[in-house]
Amino acid sequence: MAGPVISDVELPSYADKHFLGRSIDRPAVSQSAGADLLEIAGWAIAREGEPVSIDVFDREYRLRTAPIARERKDVADLFSDQASALTSGFRTTVGTVGLPHDFELLVRVNFADGRKLPLALIRGSREPMTTTYDPQLPPIMVTALGRSGTTLLMHALAACPDIVVGGAYPYELRFARYWLHAAKVLSDPADPNHGPSVDAFQLDLTTVPNNPFFSASAEPAAVAWFAESQPLLVGELAQRSLDGVYGKLAAERGGARYFAEKFSPSYSQSIAWELYGERARELFLVRDFRDVLSSIVAFNRKRGFEGFGRSESADDLDFVRRLGGSARMLLQEWEERHDRAHFVRYEDLVTDPEAALGAIGGYLGLDPAAIEAMVAATTESSTKLDRHKTSADPAASMGRWREDLAPEIAAACEESIAAPLKAFGYLEQAPEPS
């Protein structure tokens, strides 16, 4: 596989006031790595505070963290009055499988006092990996937040003879999410700062980390083989494994053209698009995020325990902030892939399933009989689906936040989730995102 080509390395000027000096030494502009790896190295000296580490982000996803502690005698010579200059260096290697064709990486500095400041933006392009295997069943990824109507939509997709779904209600078997995650982890080089040691990884029989020997300490020929071949091998393993399990399920029902799974916003979808290319399909299912919050609260109360991340939140306001972060990730992923994905509004799905599912059927290339089967599934009486509901009917599920949420929580939603609410047309009448 050809490596990424770097088009620009920017040190944002708005951060100049925070640093006495900083640099990204590698990668260099126009540099093309020999394989799908990207070495990031440089140094940073702050005007105030102690820089302790850097993070490397692709969009909202943190790819690597590395300490700012490497010896840099050249920097110490330039800043002889700064005691921290001698150990101001950093270095890490990032696996690029899953990056967009045109990518932008953020290198961020973390300070001992908790501050986080941008150091650099690295822009470039890369070609997706292509395995030698031809997968038979491409995915339909239903990307959404919980309580957005995913179970109803999956129920409809499961009724389509062209689509196989793992498991029955509530359709939570997610074989692809595991294998796509594994493809990323096993493709990436070792993380010496956070992974297990080369002497200890085999003692944990429940976890498989990045290959600890895929590192700069290995022989160059071995590193070159890992970088060139390992992503292709594990990518093919993921494709074959998903064909195997979903092919078995499809055979029991007479065949299928796709498999479908629920996905929350995650890096897995980027891996899926890389492995399946234009054959992949993605449905972005969106609901007014204030109604999502109302439904989560009601469903947690109905089940008698806190789910959907509520138990990890300090209080209701903290949960709103977390929900806002998830909504922003959903929006960012939609903006990234809107040219190849399909937008579905929950409110349309429950009030006019014929139109909503007809549009989905057109995107998936389904025949009229298959679409009719999906529509029938959404309108039939189902005890299991009824147990999943927290409102009497579709009309009652829309705009429920006005009655359900306390004024301070509703206000916090509009503050924390303003951009996604507006972008998806929930703060004011707006056209469908394009």
Q: Supply the CATH architecture of the largest domain.
A: 3-Layer(aba) Sandwich
- For the record, what is the CATH homologous superfamily label of the largest domain? P-loop containing nucleotide triphosphate hydrolases
Query: What letter string, H or E per element, gives the SSE order?
Result: EEEEEHEEEEHEHHEHEHHEHHHHHHHH
Number of DSSP strand runs: 13
Number of domains: 2
Number of helices: 15
Quaternary state of this entry equals single chain
The main sheet comes to:
5 strands, antiparallel
Query: What is the CATH topology classification name of the largest domain?
Result: Rossmann fold
Distance between the termini: 33 Å
Mean model confidence by pLDDT: 91
Helicity level: 25-40%
Structural class comes to alpha/beta
